Amino acid sequence: MIYQIKWKKNGTPIAGGHGSGSDLNQLRQPQGLFVDNDNTIYIVDYQNHRIVQWKSADTEKNEVRRWTEGEDANSNGTIVAGGNDAGNNLNQLNSPSSIFVDENYSVYISDHKNHRIMKWRKGAQTGMIVAGGSGQICVGDCANHRVVCWNEGSSEGTIVAGGIGPGESSDKLSSPTGISFDIKGNIYVSDHNNHRVQKFATDNNQ
Fold first, then answer.
1. Looking at domain 30-132, which CATH architecture does it have?
2. For 8, 13, 91, 199, which has the most beta carbons within 10 A of its beta carbon?
3. What is the pTM of this model?
4. What are 75-126's pLDDT values in tens digits?
C-alpha cells in the first residue's frame, strides 16, 4: 500500500522571522540547512557569515548555530563554529554556503569566500581545513566548473566530473553547486547555469 504524505498549507517559523538582521533570533538570507536524526536544525545564515545551531546569547557574526526541536523562533542559537568576524583564521568563516553534520556531530562547512572546506568537531573552539576525513569528501567547485573529491590524508583532490571549462555538453558543468550520491556511488550534480541536474555514473554502471 502506498501512502501519500500531505502537508499543512501554513508553515510555522522555527528560526528567524524577526526581520533581516544579525541578532541571534534573526537570519539574513539563509541558504542551506541540515536536519540531523535528533531533529536538530543547522542553518546557513549566508549574509551574516554564520551557520546556526539555535541557542546562545553571543551576538557576534560569522557563526555556526543550532536550533533544537521544541524551541520557538523567539529563542536564540548556540555557536558551534566561527563567531569571530569574517576572516580566514581557523576560528573564522567568510560567507559559508553549505553544511553537513556527521554521526559524531562534527560540522563540515563550505567556507565560500575562503575557498575551503572546514570541519568543526563537537565542542571545538577552532576548525580544521579538511581534505578527506572519514572516507571521502567531494565538493562542487563552482567557479572552476567541476566536482573534486579528496581521499583521507590527501593533500590534493581528484577531479571526478567537469573540469574542462564551462559548457552544456554532457562532460561539462557550468557553476555546479549542490552534489549528492546514491547508494551505488553515482554522483548527482546541481548544474546551476545549465539549469539541469547531471548524473555521473560510476564506471561499473556505465
1. Beta Barrel (2.40)
2. 91
3. 0.61
4. 566 777 887 788 888 888 888 888 888 888 888 888 878 878 888 888 888 8
Amino acid 1 reads M
CA torsion angle 24 71 127 179 (round to 10): -100
Which of 83, 154, 94 shows the shortest CA–CA distance to 118?
94
| Span 43-66, pLDDT tens digits | 887 777 777 776 433 333 445 555
The label of the residue with cell 521544541 reads: 70
Q: Say yes or no: domain 136-200 is CATH 3.30.365.10.
A: no
**Could you read off the pLDDT of 129-151 as tens digits, one per residue?**
775 334 567 888 888 999 988 77
Hey, what's the cell of 72? 520557538
Q: How far apart are CA 137 and CA 131, in angstroms?
A: 7
Rounded Cα gap, residues 60 and 64, in angstroms? 11
